[in-house]
Amino acid sequence: xxxxxxxxxxxxxxxxxxxxxxxxxxxxxxxxxxxxxxxxxxxxxxxxxxxxxxxxxxxxxxxxxxxxxxxxxxxxxxxxxxxxxxxxxxxxxxxxxxxxxxxxxxxxxxxxxxxxxxxxxxxxxxxxxxxxxxxxxxxxxxxxxxxxxxxxxxxxxxxxxxxxxxxxxxxxxxxxxxxxxxxxxxxxxxxxxxxxxxxxxxxxxxxxxxxxxxxxxxxxxxxxxxxxxxxxxxxxxxxxxxxxxxxxxxxxxxxxxxxxxxxxxxxxxxxxxxxxxxxxxxxxxxxxxxxxxxxxxxxxxxxxxxxxxxxxxxxxxxxxxxxxxxxxxxxxxxxxxxxxxxxxxxxxxxxxxxxxxxxxxxxxxxxxxxxxxxxxxxxxxxxxxxxxxxxxxxxxxxxxxxxxxxxx
Length: 408
What we know:
Rossmann fold, Transcription Regulator spoIIAA, five-stranded mixed beta barrel, 25% strand
């Protein structure tokens, strides 16, 4: 029997899918995380935008094309948000809690209450050079545009011992770990913010370490300076900006100003000369004026991010922002297209500023090797390397997508 566990959305979802894959494998199933012919499909859905929910529904039809007789099991944020959209299309509709129970192959609609404490999962199935380690779930921020706190519940942290045990038991082929959570910056140990302490404890494993994302409010001098002393920390900082306009940030219920954000970026570059600083930007937030959008453009160019993730605002029923008037789709698209052009130029410029790096080889295709530097530049290396090796390279050029490199 074969099962495909398919993931939409964030790295937390991916970790939870990999945990489920591990359970199925232990039960004797042939498992896959790519869409192919199977006896059963588990679709781990996303609800961060309306487009993500649409893709979650469409995935059912894509699975049925491979095997019309296969059983479909749907779980995750889209199912939690609106289980009715999957009625009659899936054997099981399950929310965000207790995803591991899907391996029992139940049926019906099961939308359990989100737990108040961190829900321990089976360790994730790891078959790559990079392992995602979930350390936190839920969020207390309640940004005015975001539905996720209502679906995932309050912030809660995984125990330090459990995290260390999982990393200690990783396959020897894993060379890099990525810590992930719904609000990773809110990871706590004994009730106190503990992300730096966690990284210090993990540094002894001699694995490259990354953070999936970071909130500006945690990145003070003590935190950034502490990171700079870690021997295995990779200097890629994904700081979610969302808008470069203070008035929009206030309406979004973001808890910083552009000046505070700028100071954080300066602090990072003080301690990490070659740091990559990437970000998320929402365009077309309700009532975003042309002037407010131009403030965002100016701020992005001022900070000189390494790359941008750009999202047109998505109306999410139940959020504070959903009560405001949505902008016309054409306006949102035009603004997103403008930022995409800026993003291409910024990423190309960032690549040009880097002349060398250490690349973790992830795949080899047609005589060329591919992987990422410590500061998260994707490299195409004109050589055949072993997957899992970390190699020194000289960067010879690049474009808006990747760098071209030779072995040093």
